[in-house]
Amino acid sequence: MSTEPDQSQVAHLDDGAGILAVDETSFLKRGEESVGVGRQYCGLTGQIENCQVGVFLAYISSKGQSLIDRRLYLPKSWTQDRQRCKKAHIPSKVRFATKTRLAQGMLHSAINAGIQPAWFVADEVYSRDASFWRWLEQEVKQPYVLTVNKRQPTPINFQTCYAEDLARTVPPENWQRLSTGAGTFVRAVL
After folding, report:
1. Would 168 be classed as within a structural domain?
2. Do 50 and 118 belong together in one domain?
3. Contact at 8 Å (CB) between 65 and 59?
4. Are the C-beta atoms of 72 and 90 separated by less than 8 Å?
5. Contact 142, 107 (CB under 8 A)
6. Are 46 and 40 in contact (CB under 8 A)?
7. What's phi and psi for 93, nearest 5 deg?
8. Most Cβ neighbours (<10 Å): which of 35, 115, 129, 143?
9. Same domain as 97, residue 17
């Protein structure tokens, strides 16, 4: 269900400014026997589908990228059905973990393996869990960028702020459009 990252996996990619990125991917399924399969949100289609979900950790630098860890998300419908888990050879110690908890475990393993990212990045699935970004700030002391929904309450300097409101305070000439990959762009204030 997981691998342990190793610093040697990324040594050839290390440019001193590498990042660790986490994201989940869905795998459409027809049956009910594949481990973790169930009716759940499928990022591939944007709706509830019969699928499996994997959470992946990648190391990315100017020299390239490498997947270094992955964890299979097991919905509660799986972890609460011990007979189903036993039939699928899932160890009895495996309990329900959110996608955020899986990401936290992978990031913790990577850092313990000597991988030192300049940044950690993830989408809004991970920013909605305040305990996750508090863990990044307070325990790991890891700089991070998390996507937030425009109406997600986000504390900044002990005040609740919303991205939508903060964006309105920046003059148009201070925004710069940056490519995040072929066909995708973000707007950033630099």
Report:
1. yes
2. yes
3. yes
4. no
5. yes
6. no
7. -75, -15
8. 115
9. yes
